Amino acid sequence: MNQGHDPTQQQQQQLDLQQEELPRHEWDFSLLASIPSSSSSLLASDSIGSIAFSPSDSNDSLLATAGIARKIRVFNLGSLIECVAQSQPSVSICTPAKLSNVRFRTGHVIGAGDYDGVVTEYDVTRGSGMAVSERDEHGGRRIWSIDYSSNGSLAASGSDDCTAHMWDPRANSDVLFETIPFTSPVCCVEFDPSGEPFFAIGCADKKAYVYDIRMVRHGPVQVLDRHTRAVTYVRFAGHGRLVSSGADDRHVLWEWSNGQCVREYTGHTSSRSFVGMGVWMHEGLVASGSESNKVFVYDLRWRRPIWISGFSEHIHTSMEIENTRNRGFVSAVSWRQGTGDESGMLVAGDTHGVVKVFGCRRREQVE
Asked: Is the alpha carbon torsion for 12, 13, 18, 19 positive or negative?
């Protein structure tokens, strides 16, 4: 059997790109703050693996970053923007293992999934962050992703042990609500943030899955099969839509209820690394990092990016230059999910531990 690409299909894809409407640039982006690495040396890795906002939309909402440096840094967002020069976290939590993912359950309780298969919750209002619960969910195998439902009544994690677990974080019990087995590592989990009873999983088997959490044991209500490599991120996009991201340099927009692929987004590079992907549901914008050390923003209406920004170049030693992996790339992104005044906030972090906060505002007039 011929395993190569179909020339006719390639020609049609090229024709579609030529005929595609160019994206309209309706948004202006500006740098609000740049937070330096917590490490004094580039040789000491402080790679950012996850960025999360607290649920609050007020000026005192929190921003958290975490990664392989075994540290969660929590910033008061209002103070951060007003006092850019200081850029000091309001809380710094040292953890026993490298961290892959952080998510806020409430405005002051943050959950962290680590490389040892443990999900730990911390109360950021208690000193340097007191651990209030701990669950050894995955038998020592790395957790890639955790998430909470919109009302905080359910938590979930996905791991290298080829399972996704779901439980009630409010209960003082080790009893699991559900365990969902797969044949490949689970790279991402997400509850529908709009409050609908749906749950998405991205898997190393190149597929994304959507479940109805009321009947998980009946299997997925939809299997989304388009990527050619591992699905690293899944994000609900509102109105029955889902965006998946793969280690094949593509984001894909789905009408997930009928399994229809609506559009693919290309320009960023993510062939071997987790580069972050997030959706601003209210405005239909997708952000991602890239192995090219840039931040990309896509409008769901067009497959080409509407905005690209490079991170600052770092000075490298001769040892680092020999190892291309140490040259750094944008490894995590997150939107602040505002809905009010056609303005928003995007935060991105890189593999050297640098975090940048961007403001964005819709233009009053579009030419």
From this structure: positive
Handedness of CA 156, 280, 74, 313 (dihedral sign): positive
* Cα–Cα distance for residue pair 13/4, rounded to 1 Å: 15
How far is it between the farthest Cα atoms of the chain? Answer: 63
Helix (H, G, I), strand (E, B) or coil at 154: coil
In this prediction the pTM is 0.88
Sequential DSSP letters for 320-334: HHHSGGGG--EEEEE
314: left (phi over 0), alpha (psi -120 to 50) or beta: beta
The neighbour count for residue 191, using CB atoms within 10 Å, is 24
Instruction: Name the band, by pLDDT with cuts 50, 70 and 90, for residue 314.
Output: very low
* Residue closest to 80 by CA, chosen among 281, 357, 276, 341: 357
% of the chain with per-residue pLDDT over 90: 69
Residue-wise pLDDT tens digits, 117-127: 999 999 998 86
CA angle 244/246/248 to nearest 5° reads: 140
Name the residue type at position 72. I
User: 122: number of CA atoms within 13 Å, CB side?
Assistant: 24
pLDDT at 9: 52
Give CA–CA dist 109/230, Å, rounded: 31
